[in-house]
Specification:
The protein is mainly alpha-helical. Helix content is about 55%, strand content about 0%. It is elongated, with a radius of gyration of 21 Å.
Amino acid sequence: MSKIRYLDDEEKELMRALEKGEWVSDFNRSIKKEYQKYAKHSLSKQKRINIRMAERDLKKIQVKALQEGLPYQSLISMLIHKFNEGEVSFAKKKHV
């Protein structure tokens, strides 16, 4: 077992069990691929941006993020990602 000093006893026991192969994944191939995709995206290099937006919009986003239990920057980032992936689109209004 590698020596990591900041692990408590329970964490050390879990690490020992993992290293001995006592834990086996019960994920099927498709679930593993999905989680690998999530990991790839979450580990990709992050870039900082600055945007200007109406204070009213920012406040609404902050409230929604608080309701979801996540930082508002993460909510904005998630929305941009979903838009880029085609999961969110502009609503087309019909002109009457």
